[in-house]
Automatic annotation (TrEMBL):
<feature type="transmembrane region" description="Helical">
    <location>
        <begin position="56"/>
        <end position="89"/>
    </location>
</feature>
<feature type="transmembrane region" description="Helical">
    <location>
        <begin position="12"/>
        <end position="36"/>
    </location>
</feature>
<keyword id="KW-0812">Transmembrane</keyword>
<keyword id="KW-1133">Transmembrane helix</keyword>
<keyword id="KW-0472">Membrane</keyword>
<protein>
    <recommendedName>
        <fullName>DUF4870 domain-containing protein</fullName>
    </recommendedName>
</protein>
Amino acid sequence: MTRSNSTYAKIIYILYLVGLVMGLTAIIGVVMAYVKRSEPEMPVWLKTHFDFQIQTFWYGVIYLLVGILLATVFIGAVVLVWWMIWLIIRSVKGLSALDRQTAIEGTFFGFGRDL
């Protein structure tokens, strides 16, 4: 059961990365994360990944919307580049922790401690 759920978590991280070019895959990923997170007898370390993925999606939507709204000025481009880098870092960090079968911290920026 854990192996199967671990595979789902890995697929979700990959869907997020593919979502940089095809946004629909990120929506599929967050739906999968919500479904898998609520499964009974989920190991705590693995549940943290699904929570992290859900948090990544919603903060990513905020970054994306702010970047699009500010696209008429230079800062919008900076926000969009930041969003892409941020998403890649969070996904790679998640995949790395998943391979080690360890819990992941749900931080706002993807670095350090919670705000």
